[in-house]
Amino acid sequence: MNNLKFMLKPKSVAIIGASRVPGKAGRVILENYINTGYSGKLYPVNPNAENLLGLKAYAHVSEIKGNIDLAVIAVPAPVVPEVLEECGKKKVKSAVVISGGFAEVGNKELQDKIVKIAEKYNIAVLGPNCLGVLDTRSRVNTLFLPTYKLSEPRVGYVSFVSQSGAVGSTVLDVIEGEGFGLSKFFSYGNAAAIDETDILNYLLKDKETKVVVMYIEGIKRGAEFVKVAKKISMKKPVIVLKAGRTSAGASAAHSHTASLAGNYAVQEAIFKQFGFTVAEDLEDLITYAKIFSLEEETAGNNVAVITNGGGTGVLTADEIGSSGKLRLAEFSEETKEALRKAMPPIVNIADPLDLAGDADAERFGKALELVSKDPNVDMIIAIVLFQTPGADSTVAAEIIKQKNTTDKPVVVISPGSSYTAMQKIMMESGGVPVYDSPASAVKALTALLDYSNYRKRKTD
Amino acid sequence: MNNLKFMLKPKSVAIIGASRVPGKAGRVILENYINTGYSGKLYPVNPNAENLLGLKAYAHVSEIKGNIDLAVIAVPAPVVPEVLEECGKKKVKSAVVISGGFAEVGNKELQDKIVKIAEKYNIAVLGPNCLGVLDTRSRVNTLFLPTYKLSEPRVGYVSFVSQSGAVGSTVLDVIEGEGFGLSKFFSYGNAAAIDETDILNYLLKDKETKVVVMYIEGIKRGAEFVKVAKKISMKKPVIVLKAGRTSAGASAAHSHTASLAGNYAVQEAIFKQFGFTVAEDLEDLITYAKIFSLEEETAGNNVAVITNGGGTGVLTADEIGSSGKLRLAEFSEETKEALRKAMPPIVNIADPLDLAGDADAERFGKALELVSKDPNVDMIIAIVLFQTPGADSTVAAEIIKQKNTTDKPVVVISPGSSYTAMQKIMMESGGVPVYDSPASAVKALTALLDYSNYRKRKTD
Q: Does residue B304 sit in helix, strand or coil?
């Protein structure tokens, strides 16, 4: 499926079914292309319009003079084969079929028709019944969702593959509020032609993708999936949320996308065998995407906790204790001595290291500097409660500085509301993952440890 | 400890240690009293100032003419006994000792001194080494945290008791961003005199408190705690987060507040025996506080899921399946028939009920109305993905309407960013709990079920 590159980096896009009616899918897609600054050629196709939003409209793709790399198809299901046939004749390289009304409502025959046409003309077809693709760099965006409801995430290195459009769009929206960025998004719907395995094969070699996140309801081609799974997780971390953990979920998945969920326990075991990080919930996807997009790896499981709130330090120690994999670091004698000299007497030299409620940037900085040099410390959690008098953006800046001075993973826990949210975005933009609870931070570090160990075992 | 009412509803407050220096605790507290609109009498006490922020300052409490219901003490630890003695002579009813430097740094003797003075003069003393109290109705607020960092939560019925000031202030800040409100907050620090048991005894009879949330590191008087625990959970739900789940956490708790965490498993069993909801994490506190402040009880464990996103419906079915306590409802034949008539053909009549991505307020309203009347349904989860074209604030308004028409609990799942956040606040202000993931919604309903069953068993 090398043609996927035409779908993601098209020099020209035809929007077939571009509508004059505000709110219609084809109309929203055209608006989004115009509003988000796509710089290639744009051809609205609509037999009943001469102009659309200031662009010349075409009755058929055949009337367009130049080459077409991507056709976005948003016409009623029965018309799709005819439109795709026209695209084939015009040598269109790739197509996203937004339209629903195929296998998901029992219309398997109509779906098979478009698969045949795709094969005949060698068109890379995504869908039908999908949201399509989004690429933050090329600004390709086939989602028919209004931008005021869902702002586009910033440019980054996480690519997200979702069988469900609904799950996809909500996760995109959540990512937009986070400080890490997105590379590509794929909603592949019924997967008539291109499926999760094809997309993984593409992302395996994609330099703009450092982390892959997947939501899947069923796997179409098990053997091929396993093949690419083996290869990809040696190159980049893959996070997977698989629906159908329970019989209730599996039966709901079947009526949703006609997916056969399969035995979850078996699949989970396979995912883990290939070093995938298994998420159990939507929130996990964000937790894991964040750590893998901002941290490389960890050499071990010894965690130092530095905090300006004693109670939150205790709760974090509890989470570390119950993780079963991480442990609180035992500082070296040198570190203890250096801390004793550098810290005010109120600070008890122990892990968690409680810097007290009046800790400022200088105290945080000194503590991080000394602790990160300790050979007994592999990872650092800094708890910064911005509600305290001493903590402000100078602390955030200091943490960014220290994190970029050490090779060891540094994550922050900062629960709070609007004031904290500002500091969080600042720190994440500076490369520091920020979590809003001890539980999610410890989950993230545990996943990083598991993946680091997997890579080590495989390369040893 | 009847004098706690003077602490929470004081007609007059003396702030001892009110400072001229911006940022000092005594100064911030005075500023907060002025800024948040406390309507009683306010007396700054500072021997080196004649006026403070436009108010006449007093050198000693003895110079104040009127009665003093509450003294907020923010002076260095060695001076506290002397100041408290003066308060006693002045017949001050209650005192919050903000100052640190007592048992938590090994200075048990100094702490015992203030306990004796409190007993001698019958002053209700909270602290030392604490943030004190906040009452959203009386606008008493002894927290020395700047309001721009921590906005005051709206008025509500959740009271929050925290042994740790840091945990307390961050949870307050998080609550401020939620649509449910706060009644009272207690940070009781070293608990030299008033402890968690005294506060529970007060909240037991407090009509402004419908839900109690606690963070504790150690319980001081086990037998008395058990007595009030037994009584309170027949009247109102109690949510407890107990530090020291693991040995790592227990040892951190000991060095934090010198608390003996005790055997966690034993304590957890006791909490559950008395119908307390046990939280494992900060996020759980919010999840549970929300459901109990907005919902009464449930008659059973059958859940109907109504969604405008198929995938999120599947994930919710998975969470219900793995809860071990809830189950998907089986709609009655009457409901199925009525739904078939009311819904467009694209809607497959099943639970989860997938209303499709173009569902609008009318479709949501009709589905909720029919499903909530079904005798086979005990609770309803409505998944509203506001990223979809059909969902906007008319859907939010419709859900508020339906929720206030039925006696059955209705909760919403709406993951997203800023556009969704607006809808969430609107729905919660209208009495509908909104969660951002299937996992938290299902946790919340499970806790509601457990508590409802506890009450039923006890009253049968």
A: strand
Which residues of chain B are within 8 Å of residue A215 when distances are taken between CB atoms? 311
pLDDT at residue number B104:
83
Q: Is the dihedral of CA A258, A263, A264, A270 positive or negative?
A: negative
Task: Read off the pLDDT of each residue in B96-106 and give the average, rounded to a whole number.
Answer: 91
Q: Is the peptide bond before A375 cis (omega within 30 degrees of 0)?
A: no
My answer on whether A307 and A413 are in the same domain is yes
User: Do A107 and A6 lie in a common domain?
Assistant: yes
Q: Kindly determine whether residue A282 and residue B151, on different chains, have CB atoms separated by under 8 Å.
A: no
CA nearest to B28 within chain A: A389
What residue type is A196 in one-letter code?
A: E
Same domain (yes/no): B267, B353 = no
Sequence-distant (≥ 6) Cβ neighbours of residue B227 within 8 angstroms: none
Q: Quick one: residue A405, left, alpha or beta (phi over 0 = left, psi -120 to 50 = alpha)?
A: alpha
Average the pLDDT over B436-460 and give the result. 94
Tell me what pLDDT residue B353 has.
Answer: 97
Query: What is the per-residue pLDDT for B86?
Result: 97
Whether residue A145 is contained in a domain is answered as no
Considering only CB atoms, B416 lies closest to which of A170, A257, A350, namely A170
Cβ within 8 Å, pair B245-A318: yes
Residue B330 has pLDDT above 90, yes or no: yes
pLDDT in tens, B112-131: 999 999 999 999 999 999 99
Give the domain range for residue B258.
Answer: 153-294
Residues A336, A215 share a domain: no
CATH number at residue B8: 3.40.50.720
Model confidence band, residue B261 (pLDDT cutoffs 50, 70, 90): low
Closest-CA residue to B202 (of B228, B173, B241, B182): B228
pLDDT band at A357 (very low <50, low <70, confident <90, very high): confident
Q: How far is A170 from chain B (nearest CA, A)?
A: 6
Q: What is the mean pLDDT of chain B?
A: 93
Helices and strands per DSSP (H, E), number in chain B: 16, 20
Which residues 7-46 of chain B have a CB within 8 Å of chain A? 23, 28
Domain tally for chain A?
A: 3
Cα dist. A8→A188, A199, B29 in Å? 14, 12, 57
d(CA B306, CA B324): 21
